[in-house]
Amino acid sequence: MAEALPFEDVAPVERAESEPALHVDVDGFEGPLDLLLELARRQKVDLHKISILALAEQYITFIEEARRMRLELAADYLVMAAWLAYLKSRLLLPEPPKGEEPSAEDLATALALRLRRLEAIREAAKKLGERDWLGREVFARGAPEPVMIRRDAHYEASLYDLLKAYARQRQIKLNAKVSLHKRNVWSLVDARDALERLVGHLSDWTTLDTYLMQYMVEPSMRPTVLASALSATLEMVREGKLTVRQDEAFAPVWVKPIRDTAEAGA
Amino acid sequence: MDDTEDTVDETPEVSKDDVPSVPDHREATRIAEALLFASAAPLSVDDLAGRLPEGADVGAILEDLMALYADRGVHLVRVAGRFAFRTASDLAFVLARNVVEQRKLSRAAMETLAIVAYHQPVTRAEIEEIRGVATSKGTLDTLLETGWIRLRGRRKAPGRPVTYGTTPHFLEHFGLDAIEDLPGLEELKGAGFLEGRVPPDLSVPVPSDDQALREDEDPLDHDELFQPLSIDEGGTGGE
Amino acid sequence: MDDTEDTVDETPEVSKDDVPSVPDHREATRIAEALLFASAAPLSVDDLAGRLPEGADVGAILEDLMALYADRGVHLVRVAGRFAFRTASDLAFVLARNVVEQRKLSRAAMETLAIVAYHQPVTRAEIEEIRGVATSKGTLDTLLETGWIRLRGRRKAPGRPVTYGTTPHFLEHFGLDAIEDLPGLEELKGAGFLEGRVPPDLSVPVPSDDQALREDEDPLDHDELFQPLSIDEGGTGGE
């Protein structure tokens, strides 16, 4: 599209006063058809009675003027100019006998129709634009009250989820216990050594507990000492080195070494 | 229910039975009024029927409400085949003052919108043919963005160009009940300006914003439906 | 609006004075109606006075409009000293729709629920001790919302912390006949929920969801029973 014209500032008054004076400025037009429509309006006649010949001449003059002023013109303006020049020559020359091509009159009529159609849709656009627009002349409720969605939350959870969650908690505790407490352990090896030392001195029944007292000074050692000692004792019984006796549940455990094979069977 | 009531006046013996339904009509009218007032968007008869008490005569209720509000500051109007409360248009002079800034459509956009409205379904090439100038992509994008026009489908023609049409939102915005209510439509039709685009055998020389595609339209491709703004028809290029 | 006029006509001595202003009053009422309808926020008397024709009696106009809409689906109401149209409160139901939403409990909520179930009656501090992490108020609120846990009472201990327990609804949801049916640690291990050895001192207290308070529980204060969600135990602070 063309730039603003250099003489635009020079003669603004003239332009306003004498409308027909052709103002060469393509900027204001929406393409060649729009320009043609504007030129046709300047003929101040009904579009039905428009002289296409005169219009073509005016258009060509306009374009020539614009080119003389070295305005950059979009190609479609030039294409239209060339086509109008062709139409003009056809209209001026005597019409050849009916051929394949449409006659010059038909072409002119088609152009006039196109102009009228553009004019008509312009008129429609204007009417549309003049209607009451929502938000411009006419208004909807400014504070619409939305449909309140009452959300009844329905929670989903299965017993499996519940148990898993609980187990997860407890498992953490479980693992934590193992790592936190360093347990004092009287190992089976310790127990075996201690028992063998004991058996070496023994000749008759004696309570295991009495002997083990020395290893249970620390109260926390009591369960592990008793457990390991009992295991070691049973191990030695199995090996035939010891015999064990307990009179009733929770009563003291008595041990006695076996010196010969005859007693071992008893 | 109220149908019955109206006819009822002529047949008194039935009307006794219907007496209890009178407050129902009143109540249904109140509910319809509340629903229409509460909604910014127009409501269809079906919308209303679904929310009103069983058997309510939606048509009669709407007529009552329209009459009730006829000379008030707020009117019940039909737009896009639906119903909505709108401020009376003669009060625009007071209300327009609080319009912050109405986006103005350029002349090109307004013309393009008119062409889409009156000639729909219409392709970009057809719009350009009527205006005699290339249509910039921005113009169509602007119109798509307003929500007033939409991509309808693709013309069954070489190049399968996209066809454009208007939306219910367009009707709502311009206060039209149906596309046939476009101003000056008869004149355009009478002058034959709406013909001659589509092949004569298919031509229906009236605009149609019907959701259904015409015989000469194909549906859009799947992804076009979800990204309408990003579509490039590979068209004629900008101005 | 016509109602208003009628009332005016009944008082002739005033009506004479008002005769020239009657059409103005009508028009001003229409304008006020439209302004109130179109406004996004409630309007004050001053707001309206600034937009209505000079000399309009805003107070009278508002009274007229209020009376006009009094038994309609929409009311003109005063909110915070301003005026706005609102759906009649008795029709609130037409604007409401119930939606059932499926939600999943967060892991934290699920764990908290499990601890409440197994260790009830349990205080928030105890839950936190077992979980080894602070419990957010939101988690307990969510659980209260599910209807699966409830506030039982207050522990007879310094600070009188609230005790939580499960509800019959909890049993119902999880398909338990009684709270004692919750599997113990050995059973959990058997079912593969727990791995490794379960030390004997890691036991589960026998949960009780008995309605009756335990000896170490006090009843809740009267108002807590009705606003369980708003209770703040003044607890350990959220996560």
UniProtKB/TrEMBL annotation, chain A:
The record's Pfam families line, in alphabetical order, gives: SMC_ScpA (PF02616)
Q: Which PANTHER family match?
A: SEGREGATION AND CONDENSATION PROTEIN A
Q: Protein name, please?
A: Segregation and condensation protein A
From TrEMBL, chains B, C:
Q: Which UniProt keywords apply?
A: Cell cycle, Cell division, Chromosome partition, Cytoplasm
The answer, when asked if Secreted is one of the entry's keywords, is no
Q: Where is the composition biased (Low complexity)?
A: 199-210
> What are the Acidic residues biased-composition ranges?
1-12
The UniProt entry, under Pfam families, shows: SMC_ScpB (PF04079)
Q: Which residues form the signal peptide?
A: none
**SUPFAM superfamilies in the record:** Winged helix' DNA-binding domain
Looking at the keywords, is Manganese present? no
Q: Where is the composition biased (Basic and acidic residues)?
A: 13-23
Annotated InterPro entries: ScpB_csome_segregation, WH-like_DNA-bd_sf, WH_DNA-bd_sf
Where is the region Disordered?
1-23, 196-239
Name of the protein in question: SMC-Scp complex subunit ScpB
Native species of this protein?
Microvirga puerhi
